[in-house]
Amino acid sequence: MSFRKILVANRGEIAVRIIRACKELGIATVQVYSQADADSLPVMLADESVCVGPGAGKDSYLNVPNIVSAALITGAEAIHPGYGFLSETASFAEVCASAGIKFIGPPVSAIEAMGDKATARETAKRAGVPTVPGSEGIIASEAEAIKVAAGISYPVILKATAGGGGRGIRVVFSEDELIAALKVSQSEAAAAFGNADVYIEKYITSMRHIEVQILADEHGHCVHLGERECSVQTVRHQKVVEEAPSATLSHEQRLAIGAAAVKAAQAVGYANAGTVEFIWTPSGEFYFMEMNTRIQVEHPVTEAVTGIDLVQAQIKIAAGETLPFTQEDIRWHGHSIECRVTAQDPSRGFAPGAGRLTNVRVPGGLGVRVDTQIYSNYLMPPFYDSNLAKVIVWAETRAEAIARMRRCLDEFLIEGIPTNIAFLKTILDDPRYRGNDVSTAFLPTMMEELGMTG
Ligand code: ADP
Ligand code: ADP
Ligand code: MG
Fold first, then answer.
1. Which of 91, 119, 155, 235 is the most exposed place for a label (fewest CB within 10 A)?
2. What are the beta bridge partners of residue 216?
3. Mean pLDDT for each 10-residue chunk of the chain (454 residues)?
């Protein structure tokens, strides 16, 4: 059984990515779009398109009644939510189910279990997956916060249990700071996520962000596809450069962290594609951080080294198919790197921009993939995230992949609005990056050295 028609409830490059997967599977596509996206590439590529509201995301890509109606009217049997927007909203998955539409993602219960990050931490701990020292569940009072922080010692990190995308996180270095930060965090979390709850973890000063891609079918099989290294992040915890495999892990360590990810996924009855994020310490210990119950921005680096199309896998799993491979069948070959090209202006504190892209020339060649919605004369709307393109390269070795990426960034021309391309080149040229001598502190340090703010 497969689907005949899928509705894409997202925009930008990930919508293009999903449409491509559908086309190759012989599945018709319906693209929903906002008034600001009428001339967008996914609308041009899809078989059908339906306008679901004005530009602002809350009125269009988050407009559940309009999106579900669009699926019912066009006869779409399934909805792919992409990342962001409705992808981790359990109530949306529920509405889809009650309308007889398959949500291409995990069961509602798994979204709920992992969506609340404090609960997810407890679930992982119970399943025998190591977690960082911290609070048990959410912080109930100021006194509890003080006690937990004193117990694990400063610095500590406050996290909104409903947070995501690097938002709702605050590092605290002393008890004085803690009391003020707790109040601010709780009110910010209430405003941003509609949930004031926060929890506390020990802040690991020199960590790597290592995450594991998993795939599970609806018949109890679950495998991991290895790790991605995402330690190159801004001070606001936004990933900028990602790679697979991590040059830090041995094959044995890969299998161990992979098995831990599978354990965490199975603890919540997971199905479909998901990512378990870990903290990796300099001494090679790892701790569960959170699970993202959706396709991830940087999934192509895993596709490049495993040869597995993750979006097609998501669709087949949702259609009820059994995983066509076991853990032993998964092989990794070569090295892949992704750079996120954004419309951020380094000379203005990386402020996000928008406007007309008067000229676009995209890189290419052997081992190069560019996932993007942009083209010459494209008008970038101001309503959404600042991502312009993902450049993904593959080569036999990390050094060759870096050289290839560097060449691609030289080729990539975007005129009309400021971009971060020069900034990406600075990262690729840094000896610390080249030598894999990085932690999450690398990029903030590099930026400080260069007098950059943002
Ligand atoms: P992932 O967990 O897949 O690596 P992120 O955590 O970077 O992705 O992003 C999660 C969500 O945040 C995505 O839906 C994306 O649209 C949004 N996002 C990604 N990058 C940025 C950015 N630079 N600014 C604002 N939002 C972003
Ligand atoms: P989000 O849901 O916003 O993605 P995460 O829990 O995944 O939040 O954390 C985002 C980033 O914050 C991580 O990639 C890492 O850089 C940093 N971080 C999270 N927890 C810790 C910690 N305990 N110590 C140090 N850094 C952390
Ligand atoms: Mg995260």
1. 91
2. 222, 272
3. 94 98 98 98 98 98 98 98 97 98 98 96 96 95 96 96 90 94 93 95 96 98 98 96 98 98 98 98 97 98 98 98 98 98 94 97 98 98 97 98 98 98 98 98 96 84
49 within 8 A of 107, measured Cβ to Cβ: no
336/96 Cα distance (integer angstroms): 35
How would CATH label the architecture of 208-449? 2-Layer Sandwich (3.30)
> Domain spanning 5-104: which CATH class is it, in words?
alpha beta
Which residues form ligand 2's pocket by a CB distance below 6 Å? 132, 157, 159, 163-167, 169, 201-204, 207, 209, 233, 237, 277, 279, 289-290, 440
The interaxial angle of helices 251-267 and 117-126, nearest 10 deg, is 110
**Amino acid identity at 453:** T
- Three-state DSSP class for residue 382: coil
Angle of helix 12-24 relative to helix 310-318, nearest 10 degrees, comes to: 70
Contacts of 243 (CB under 8 A, 6+ apart): 228, 229, 301, 335, 336, 337, 338, 398, 401
Instruction: Measure 219 CA to ligand 3 centroid, in angstroms.
Output: 27
Judging by beta carbons within 10 Å of its beta carbon (0-12, 13-18, 19+), is residue 444 exposed, middle or buried?
middle
The residues assigned a catalytic role are 294
Q: 133-202: what CATH class?
A: alpha beta
- State the DSSP string of 363-432: --STTEEEEE---TTEEE-SSS--EEEEEEEEESSHHHHHHHHHHHHHH-EEESS--SHHHHHHHHH-HH
CA neighbor of 177 nearest in space, from 207, 196, 200, 205: 200
Ligand at minimal distance from the CA of 383 is: 1
Query: Which of 297, 303, 443 maximizes ligand 1 atoms within 8 Å of its Cβ, making it the mutation to test the pocket?
Result: 297
447 vs 454: CA distance, rounded Å: 9
Mutating to test ligand 2, I would choose from 237, 240, 442, 443 the residue with most ligand atoms within 8 A of its C-beta, which is: 237
Domain boundaries, the chain: 5-104, 133-202, 208-449
Task: Note the Cα 56 to chain centre separation in Å.
Answer: 21
Token pair 């309308």 is found at 99
Q: Closest-lying ligand to the alpha carbon of 163?
A: 2
List for the chain the helix, strand, coil content (%; round to 5): 35, 30, 35
